Amino acid sequence: NLQNYDDRLLQKIYIQKTKRREDILILGSSRSLQIRAYYFPGQTFFNHGVGGASLEDYVATYELYRQQNLFPSRVILGLDPWVLNLSNGQFRWKTLEKEFYSFINLVGLKNHTHEGFSKQMPAMKLIELFSIKYFKESIRTILSKPTKYYSTLDSFPSEGGKLFDGSNVLSSKIRR
Questions:
Q1: What per-residue confidence (pLDDT) applies to 115?
Q2: What is the C-alpha separation between 7 and 167, in angstroms, rounded?
Q3: What is the phi/psi pair of residue 45, to 5°?
Q4: What is the structure's pLDDT at 2?
Q5: Could you please report the per-residue DSSP string of 27-86?
Q6: What angle in degrees, to the nearest 10, is found between the helix axes of 7-17 and 55-67?
Q7: Looking at the whole model, is its pTM more than 0.70?
């Protein structure tokens, strides 16, 4: 039931605070968030799916693990149609811009395709902040009952939510 949060920043904080090397990482979009730890019994696992993922997200997330010297045994990529399209219009990866360019520089790649896009970023964020969609969601949140967050051992909580392994479970209304 978390909404309007920066899922990339959450991934970054998780990786910076973890001390555990994962056997399996999922890097993908929100479509990949349904992949859960129980598909990989006996192995450590974390799902780093984010909304509207792009190749830059994958590189930056891997770089965060590299900086911690916590290389996974296996990385599984969710390849949605837009991921490999340089004209995909995604800019949410910019939360992890420093990590993306750190890896690009480490491996000796020059990336001129992002320079013009980087200059547009502040305007794009401002437009998003004042959008009708964002305004409606803010009003809906203000008028709704306060959300109560809690820990549960239930693998399929009726409300849905984010699970310990980074995956998401849909609410029971949607799962039916």
A1: 52
A2: 12
A3: -155, 145
A4: 55
A5: E--GGGGG--GGGSTTS-EEE---TT--HHHHHHHHHHHHHTT---SEEEE---TTTT-T
A6: 20
A7: yes
Point out the residues of the chain with pLDDT beneath 70: 1-4, 110-130, 134, 146-149
How far is 50 from 52, CA to CA, in rounded Å? Answer: 6
> Given the DSSP bridges, would you call strands 161-162 and 168-169 parallel, antiparallel or unpaired?
antiparallel
**Do 49 and 169 contact (CB within 8 A), yes or no?**
no
Tell me what pLDDT residue 84 has: 76
**114: helix, coil or strand?**
coil
Report yes or no: 84 and 34 within 8 Å, Cβ to Cβ.
no
Give me 36's structure tokens. Answer: 């859960």
How many angstroms separate the CA atoms of 7 and 168, rounded? Answer: 12
Among residues 134, 60, 145, 125, the alpha carbon closest in space to that of 97 is found at 60
Identify the pLDDT of residue 82.
81
Q: How far, in Å, CA of 72 to CA of 121, rounded?
A: 32
Element housing 89 (H / E): none
Structure-token pair, residue 117: 């896009």
Q: Which two tokens stand for residue 173?
A: 């209304």
